[in-house]
User: What shape does this take?
Amino acid sequence: MQSPCDRRTALRIVGPALAGAFAGCVADRGSDKSNPSPSQPSTPTQAQLTTAEFTFDIGVDAQFTDTHPARIHTALTNTAATPLTLVTGVTPPFTSYLSDGKPDTNRLILIPNGPDAAHDPIEWMGETDPLPMTAEDGCWNITQGVIFEQLGSSTTLDPGETTRQQFAVYGYQNDPCLPPGTYRFVDNATIHRGRPSSESPAFEVTLEFTLTRTNDQSLSVTGSGTTVSKHEQ
Assistant: This one.
């Protein structure tokens, strides 16, 4: 079940002179550190979350054609014996839409399919909707600057449950259009065992994958990885 976070994420503007990608929101854990009580018993430390307790998968759903851009999906599944709560942006499990790189390098951008209109994470600088309707000389490229602004969300996954999001893939202000190469995407999220509270430890999770554009214009997933660390309060 997905619900809004209490904290609004920072506004990010990505244009020719400024790079950055949206990082998932961090939940308000509700702790009050202003008046610590030395007599209060400490909560036993729970074991470190491991990557055996969830899986992160990426797949190519459709290749580039003259009528539509390529499409991929990301999915995170709870493989633990207890519920897990994923704290991210509004397109769980992945909310970092621009590939790594400097503003003057070739990059890819992921456009989420079917977001709630009230919580669309992408706004455009200039045109209302600059997404091309057809390929231009085989090119699916966005030239407008983009703004990432969104409320975060928390998604509680029961054992065996999956959260999934599909994205359309475009070049972002590229010249030449969609050149062959490897494009890396990295996102950070928070996972709680059970529901977020002052009693449940939070773990920082880094989700990573790469997309490869080949000389024959096909797209493939060339790698993925996850790392977990204890959330620092």
User: Anything to note?
Assistant: Residues 4-45 have pLDDT under 50 and may be disordered. Residues 54-230 form one domain.
